[in-house]
Amino acid sequence: MGAEKPDRSAQPDAELVQLVLGGENDAFDELVRRTRRPAYRLARRITRNHEDADDVLQESYIKAYRALARFQSQRAFGPWFLTIVARTALSQIRSGARRAAVALDAPGEGGIPLAERIADPSQDPSERQRLIDVEQAFDRLSEEHRAILALRVEGDLPYADIAAALDVPIGTVMSRLARAREALLKEVEELRAARFRR
Amino acid sequence: MTKNPIHPPSEDLFAYRDGELAPEKRSFVEAHVLGCSACRSMMDQVSALESEMRRGPDAAPPGYLEHLHEALRARLASSRPAAPENVPVPPPRGREAPTKKTEDRVSGDGNRRGKVIREAGRIEEAPRLPWGAILSTAGAGAAVLVVAVILVRGGFAPKAVHEKATRGTEVSQAPPAGTGAPESVGRRMAQVPPPAPSRDEAKQKKDERFQDQKLAKTGSASGQTENETRSVADEMAHRQDEPRAQAPQAATPEGLTAPPAAMKSLAAGEETPYQALLRKHRLPPVWSEALVPATALEAAAPELRFLYVTGKAGADSARVRLYLAEADRLHYTPGDSTLYDEIAKHYRRAIRLAGSDTETVRVATERLRSLPR
Q1: Radius of gyration of chain A (CA)
Q2: Which of A89, B39, B145, B189 is 20 to 30 Å from the Cα of A186, by its Cα?
Q3: Residue A142 is assigned to a structural domain of this protein
């Protein structure tokens, strides 16, 4: 690899894609940098463990790389890539080849329970508890609801892209997303009510 | 609490908040939300929860995301964009195809074909390319292409397919001699650009014949111009909340192959969105290996997908699904289980939705059987 790499941080996605198609693989690194965080969060929310999310992410980047010629330059790379991540993650889940989900109170990386890592300890305790509540409530949702909420919340995808990712019509996206949001709200309310009773 | 006891459905409320509600419903929902504290409260609560979700931790091990691109680099070295089978494919927008030198730069580490080193030190065998088979396949493909061009110029295939769609009579659909090559040959063949003048001429003639025959059958021109076919981008811009239009299949006489809705709209001189798309991309009503070049399929795929996703395929859903399966199949390599599942799902849905459309059932069934895992 060359010692100096051009700064591509200001280049539009479409230009980066053209550079990759022309053989400039450094440009793909920039596309990875731009999308890795929302993509990981999306994959993790659907698969519910790091190992599967890692597999999904790497597989998705390989698929995107191979399919770059199909990328339509008038679109942003991010939403296009996130639909690939979602499809790959759902496929992994449905194939049954995934690892067990990590419970929120199970020891996570470094032996620290995930619930303890959920937020900055310096945060206001009530704010921290709200974040824990929403994570626990999300974890209780059905696979279908988790996937569609993750696409909307982490991916910030428009309904048409969610429809493409889930292979369903837009009308189904509207109704399923509404049910998922209502379910999340209900779960959070139940968690908070249960804590209040204790 | 609320002045308006009739609340809109929650999907409309959320779609309004997401900026995705159809324009005709927007003013009603907006007026309701302004006057209904219960609906506003529910939307605010959900917004707060989603904001909390976004503030949640990445939960990735430290340094994982920062080093992801490095881990990927080794795996990408064995891949090339746009040409998974290493068959020469014209790159988009006149860009030069990656050269051997480019390929060296991509792989860089000398592990070009033999092995892929994964980030965790795992080594797995990558498939070696059967160059002898590829070259002989390409030769066979070129020969098939010549035969196909001759047949198209002679007016054989489009006529047969078009007659099926318009008249609905059983027409022998046996492929012409020479087009019975394995599907991978046809696919690769279609990716090799044919000599431009003869192809354009054949396309033009084919289009003219389609238009002439349509005039003869319907008694009048459809009246729709190219401009009336909205592009996918326009459709997205005018995205509306349309219910999925699955037109009920009317009873059809035995042997009819065109879906009733398509026949009805042809008789009325109207085009379904699917037919407009076919006309725009000069595609036959039912996908056919001999008649649909890969380039045309690639070009039409986003609009076909849009038709399907928005439910605008209507009674043509089975044929749209068949086209989508073939569009995905262009990028399929055996072993890719994810893509295999998607393609197979499209074929199965095409078969299920086809009803009395025996041609679509036949093609989808054969193609599903020949799809290698």
Answers
A1: 19
A2: A89
A3: yes
Residues of A in contact with B108 (CB under 8 A): 1
Q: pLDDT digit string (tens) for B64-75?
A: 888 887 778 877
ipTM: 0.84
Quote the tokens at residue B244: 């999925």
Q: How many residues does chain B have?
A: 373
Q: What are the pLDDT digits (tens) for B13-54?
A: 999 999 999 999 999 999 999 999 999 999 999 999 999 888
Residue where one domain finishes, among candidates A77, A99, A121: A99
Q: Which region holds residue A111: left if phi is over 0, alpha if psi is between -120 and 50, else beta? A: left
**Same domain assignment for residues A132 and A152:** yes
Q: What is the pTM of this model?
A: 0.49
CATH number of the domain that residue A195 is part of: 1.10.10.10
Q: What is the DSSP string of B57-84?
A: ---PPTTTTTTHHHHHHHHHTT--TT-T
Closest in A57, A159, A169 to B311, CB measured: A169
Residue B346 near residue B324 (C-beta atoms within 8 A): yes
Q: Give the whole-angstrom CA distance, residue A105 versus residue B81.
A: 42
Q: Which residue has the higher pLDDT, B136 or B361?
A: B361
Q: Mapping DSSP to helix (H, G, I), strand (E, B) and coil, where does residue B8 land?
A: coil
Residue B109 exposure: Cα atoms within 13 Å on the Cβ side: 12
pLDDT of residue A120: 60
Partner-chain contact A32 B72, CB within 8 Å: yes
For residues A19 and A71, give the distance between their C-alpha atoms in angstroms, rounded to a whole number. Answer: 13
How does DSSP classify residue B94?
Answer: G
- Pairwise CB contact (< 8 Å): B56 & A58: no
Cβ-based contacts of B95 with chain A (< 8 Å): 18, 21-22
pLDDT category, A5, cuts 50, 70, 90?
A: confident
DSSP A48: -
Q: Which of A99, A130, A157 is the last residue of a domain?
A: A99
Report how far residue B123's alpha carbon sits from residue B46's, in angstroms, rounded to the nearest whole number: 46
Cα-to-chain-centroid distance, residue A161: 14
Task: Name the residue with higher pLDDT: B83 or A7.
Answer: A7
Q: Inter-chain contact A87–B342, Cβ cutoff 8 Å?
A: yes
B245 C-beta neighbours (distance < 10 Å), count: 15
Distance CA B145, CA B76 (A): 33
A68 pLDDT more than 50? yes
Strand locations in A9-115, DSSP E?
none
Please tell me whether residues A116 and A193 are part of one structural domain. yes
With contacts defined as CB-CB under 8 Å, which chain A residues touch B241? 170-171, 174
Q: What is the DSSP letter of B99?
A: -
- Domain span at residue B202? 134-226+254-369
Chain B residues with CB-CB distance to A151 below 8 A: none
> What is the span of the domain harbouring residue A130?
107-198
The predicted structure's pLDDT at residue A57: 92
